[in-house]
Design brief:
Layout lengths: L3 E2 H7 L5 H9 L3 E3 L2 E2 L6 E2 L6 E3 L2 E2 L7 E6 L29 E2 L8 E7 L2 H8 L7 E7 L6 H7 L14 E5 L2 E9 L6 H8 L4 E9 L2 E2 L9 E4 L1 H5 L7 H17 L4
Parallel strand pairs: 9-13
Antiparallel strand pairs: 1-4, 2-3, 2-5, 5-6, 7-9, 7-15, 8-9, 10-12, 10-13, 11-12, 13-14
The structure holds uracil.
The site of uracil has 8 residues, from helix 5.
């Protein structure tokens, strides 16, 4: 890995500005591999050197990626307007100054939500041109009908006239009111509005995968886990929808069936 300036390394990790770093270095408050470094333009090896500011180690990774299992009742926003936000659920040791939810789930929706301070990744992920598929499991008011498969494949027309891109749906064999749906776009309330267009109603919605990131069974509602950069790259390698439904219908239908409405 190429060497980079100490002040660039520290400031990119969020807590200190370059002028603060210069001042702290001059006072001997910054250490590299245990030795005080007084000049903030000193070059360091970000992978192998240990940098401490005021005794706290600065982590080598530039960005943080958190996968949350979002519970009901939290808004996907950094600012509180309409009740508590998902930001409150991030444990302090995982949180960074510029972290935000990369994507939206409705206040009453559940499941996989990525939070990061990597603006470029979030932009790549949310870009409509990327079409990163997302899979949801839904609990419906009325039983799933086989005709939905073709209706969703041909593109559902929403009540406002918007013509959706082709989507995939699949029933869950063990429960006639559960279904998986895969979408490659993210309009407002889209899943709910698509099922409304076929005269059904979504009671409960849980996102179970975002691209190749699958909500782990062990991540309980309201919990967060840190992802590695290589896990995040999985976002861009989504699973095969039919294989996903086959492999995960047991796990996710059990979670949804146990949720109280
Ligand atoms: N579609 C919806 O209707 N709601 C969500 O939260 C996500 C997708």
């Amino acid at each position: 890995m190429p060497l980079i300036r100490l002040d660039k390394f520290i400031s990119e990790r969020g807590e200190y500005s370059r002028s603060q770093i210069k001042e702290l270095a001059a006072k001997g408050k910054i250490r590299v591999n245990g030795a005080a470094v007084k000049k903030s333009d000193t070059k360091i090896d970000p992978e192998n050197d240990t940098v401490e500011v005021l005794g706290a180690v600065i982590r080598a990774e530039r960005f943080r990626y958190i996968l949350m299992n979002k519970p009901d009742g939290y808004v996907c926003s950094t600012e509180e307007h309409d009740g508590p936000t998902v930001m409150e659920l991030i444990p302090p040791e995982m949180r960074t100054k510029n972290m935000f939810p990369a994507g939206r789930l409705d206040k009453d929706s559940l499941g996989a939500l990525l939070l990061t301070d990597d603006g470029e990744l979030a932009h790549r992920m949310l870009s409509p041109r990327k079409h990163i598929p997302k899979i949801y499991i839904v609990k419906l008011d009325n039983p799933f009908q086989n005709k939905y498969v073709d209706q969703f494949k041909n593109g559902i027309t929403l009540s406002d006239g918007y013509q959706c891109l082709p989507a995939k749906v699949c029933n869950v064999e063990s429960c006639e009111k559960l279904a998986f749906i895969e979408l490659s776009e993210g309009k407002y309330h889209q899943v709910k509005r698509m099922f409304a267009a076929v005269e059904n109603h979504v009671q409960l919605l849980m996102r179970v995968s975002v691209g190749g990131l699958i909500l782990p069974e062990k991540l309980r509602s309201g919990e967060c886990m840190e992802l590695l950069h290589k896990d995040v790259e999985n976002l861009f390698s989504p699973p095969d929808f039919d294989a996903f439904c086959r492999d995960f219908s047991g796990v996710f239908s059990a979670i949804l069936i146990n949720k109280q409405l």
